[in-house]
Structure to design on (686 residues):
């Protein structure tokens, strides 16, 4: 490092910055099976592994309390962490929650936040086992760590995709992003005309996807019942494009995504058109859907073909073939990972 | 909760607030041995338990970058978490580190922070296995979770102290607090007279205790070698008084602390007098020394009597006798837990 040099963090992006900061950290503990670079870390404990994931949410960056009720925020903060544990094909069991709060927050408002956290704990049967509470000069910051358990030989990493594997997506994509666009627009209208009450009734689905997402525990249970182990898996938090890039990079492969295979909810489709947005772009780059992207061995296709809410959306290619999108019009485009642009 | 009621968080204090927010969280997972309320949570994995602790550090609240170099901050952030794991009589193995940063921080300055984190990982042989990096509208927030391993029947909780047990303290207390006072004073002088360079050479010990504390891994190793299992243990992060209150509350006992038994470093003693502070008050309420406070069965007294750096400072009494300080002058005072006053 040159004396006095100043490189803006934006030049590296989130993932580049993490790579840069953590590249000199050797793993010393024999129990560390997987360190940085997946949805969660994996720690050996005999046949059962401990799976750990952590996320930080900052007011004004990740959430806006103008339209995000604190109860929903508490719920969502937990769910996004649990989603990372499920994406390892593991089951979350415990969480820790740390918050930094400015004096703007009352005991009652924090009670709302923790009510949402409690509901998520109840829904997903996880225990709140620790945390930290401190003050902050400004705003609210939430940091949650989820701890889960997985069978060593059933865990799914980002690195396991093989050429010829089928690419699968659960649920539908893009709705959470459109929900956010809608809430942002209503906020702007409300700021100019505080007397106009927003009517979000017609857009319940997209608003719900943004404010109260769920993690796909049901899928992990379905995999177990169907004796299916995906070859690789990741949760879709930053948009399909970004996630497929992670899988391809870590598996050393390429991919072909069929535009016709990307599941998009009808309400989201219509709203995208209303906003003059391309629904497929919303699905590729929107993020926050917390669905699962996974790959399966083609021999397992019969196991997923008739399962509800799983869509086959493409195939794993050789690395040299790149990452392509086959549009409905029959054109082949290079996919770009726009992903996460919080910096 | 009454509609529109607004209770300031200051009315509850840190521990009261945590109790209030988390009282409705039942534990559902059979693997959760210990949830909220100790230095760390304990999760069962056969004979070995997973021990988890988490801390959040906020710029302007927990640290001041005017005198805290980023490398030291990184080191200290890790150490304070490891200290919680050692305080369970367990060994830390992995950490996750999440940071929220404003655009004031360059890649190079974050490199300094991570260099300190790396040094702590190397020193204590823990692996950095995950984390999150995001932007913040203001300042730096660091959230670290430490994951350790302990033998189920050797873990030490806050709740195990019995009447008649001896109270032991490692190292010395108060120096970290006096180091902070000194740095604060030098900062004020420097702000008024930027041409005057602070000379901290004579106070290396207290400044080092504040800027680069160490966790007492050596004590946990000593306990193992001496076949000693403390009946209860806690790390001294908020000052001796606050910690003895935690042990007494959770063990349902009282305590007598001998003022003459509280170890205070000579440099710290002299500096306290210079600042017109009572050295014992600094030891009782200063905090950030990251020493261990533990209790032992009186039958084990021979095991600790000749161990270096362990001081017997009192005895566990019945709850009804309260928590008392026997001064050097022979007076008996009720001890007050001033503790942590960040709100």
């Amino acid at each position: 490092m040159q004396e006095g040099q100043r490189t803006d963090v934006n030049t590296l992006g989130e993932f580049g910055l993490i790579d840069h900061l953590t590249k000199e950290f050797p793993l010393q503990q024999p129990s560390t099976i997987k360190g940085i670079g997946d949805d969660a870390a994996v720690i050996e404990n005999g046949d059962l592994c401990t799976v750990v994931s952590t996320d930080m949410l900052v007011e004004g960056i990740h959430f806006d309390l103008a339209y995000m009720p604190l109860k929903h925020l508490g719920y969502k903060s937990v769910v996004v962490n649990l989603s990372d544990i499920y994406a390892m094909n593991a089951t979350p069991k415990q969480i820790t929650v740390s918050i930094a709060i400015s004096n703007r927050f009352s005991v009652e408002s924090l009670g709302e936040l923790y009510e949402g956290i409690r509901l998520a704990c109840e829904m997903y049967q996880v225990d709140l086992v620790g945390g930290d509470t401190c003050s902050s000069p400004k705003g609210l910051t939430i940091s949650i760590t989820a701890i889960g358990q997985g069978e060593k030989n059933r865990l799914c990493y980002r690195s396991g995709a093989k050429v010829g594997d089928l690419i699968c997506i659960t649920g539908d994509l893009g709705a959470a992003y459109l929900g956010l666009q809608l809430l942002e627009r209503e906020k702007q209208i409300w700021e100019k005309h505080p007397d106009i009450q927003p009517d979000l009734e017609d857009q319940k689905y997209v608003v719900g996807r943004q404010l109260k997402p769920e993690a796909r525990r049901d899928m992990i249970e379905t995999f177990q019942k169907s004796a299916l182990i995906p070859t690789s898996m990741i949760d879709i938090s930053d948009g399909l494009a970004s996630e497929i890039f992670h899988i391809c990079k870590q598996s050393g492969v390429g991919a072909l995504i069929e535009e016709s295979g990307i599941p998009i909810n009808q309400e989201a489709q219509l709203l995208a058109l209303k906003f003059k947005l391309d629904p497929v772009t919303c699905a590729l780059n929107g993020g926050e859907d917390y669905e699962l992207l996974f790959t399966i061995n083609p021999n397992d296709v019969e196991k997923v073909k008739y399962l509800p809410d799983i869509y086959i959306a493409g195939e794993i290619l050789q690395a040299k073939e790149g990452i392509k999108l086959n549009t409905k019009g029959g054109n082949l485009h290079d996919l770009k990972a726009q992903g996460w642009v919080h910096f």
Summary: Chain A has a mean pLDDT of 91.
